[in-house]
Amino acid sequence: MFTLSPYRTLFADRELRRIVLSSILPRLPFGMNALGLTLLVQSQTGSFATSGVVSAAYMCALAIQAPIIGRYVDQNSPRAVMLPLGVLQAVALLLLVFAVTQRAALPLVLASAFFAGVSAPPVSMTIRAMYRKSGMPDAQKQSAFAVESVIMEACFILGPLLVSLTLLAGSPAFAVVASALMTVIGTWHFSRSGATVRWGDVERGVERHWLGPLRSFGVRRALVLSFCFAIGIGLNEIALPAFANASGFPARVGWFYAAMSVPSAIMGFAYGSRHFSWPLNRQIMVSGLWLAAGSALMAICHETWSFTLACALTGLAFGPMITALSLQLGKLSPSEYSTEAFTWSMTLFLIGLGIGFWVGGRLAEDFGATGTLLAAAALMAVAAFCCLGVPEVRNEGHNAP
Fold this sequence. Notes:
Structural class: mainly alpha
Shape: globular
Distance between the termini: 19 Å
Largest sheet: none
Number of strands: 0
Helix content: over 70%
Number of helices: 16
Order of helices and strands: HHHHHHHHHHHHHHHH
Strand content: under 5%
CATH class: Mainly Alpha
């Protein structure tokens, strides 16, 4: 039965409430940039393959940057890098818009996209590490990570809707410019919220291995699992604009994303309030199989209304899966590598998304949205069974003693 009491307990902490609210604006670009860049480049070049490569360059840069920044933050705290990176990413996004709209050479566009990705501020990773390092009981951590997944889903709801509104205004370039403004204003506000202080102190006197959290067998298995699911999610997501374009209503892509994200946020919120006795890897396996079935269902839909319904059914599994993946990684990673472990998770997740966008763009060119979604379904099914290879850990939920 769904209950709000765990969330009331969590947000009785006024400072934590302020930190979480201030983190929303700088994270909205996560829901805008990939789609915004895809549509911006496609509108200028007419090619989904080219737009997929540019989006992949952006996400791969995010992936490369994340563990480097994560290791720096674990050893020095996030205070010195948060705001400077927010300003740099805003500048890079504006340069990228200029390069694309001026029909610059592809290498220059790719370089701008890479610069935009490599300068992303570590907002999400700071909050997740803050939860991991806190003294909260497992029940509150489950609720906190569920809130995290809901916020990210909210960003993926609002982000595509904002991008679709820019299509009505005339150009997806407005979405990327808006993203740049949200990044710099939101990061400034977040850095003043107390999050960087609440993150805690650097753990001194701990012998650190050069592999960091990758030294742990369980962490490595959990990260590979995230990587596989990310490729499947990338394949699934690039199919949405491809289907919208083929249907003759490209502006409806935002509604497809919303149809997938709203159920995801609701189920993620519900998942965070309940306790499940199954090990986390088996919970993730069930979510993965649901996503595989949902992607296959989307592939056989040819009408807008049926495709939207299939998106909604598929989205039911995203929120719980993301929350369970975060809980699993938090349980398996050593405390002194908290931020770096979550940045490695983000790294592989973004590389996987980039690969999914790139491969999905090629599949969409040759086989349409159907081929892309069938590939997503197959990969999700394989990743689901790979969950059995991750060490079993349980989360002490809300009804635990």
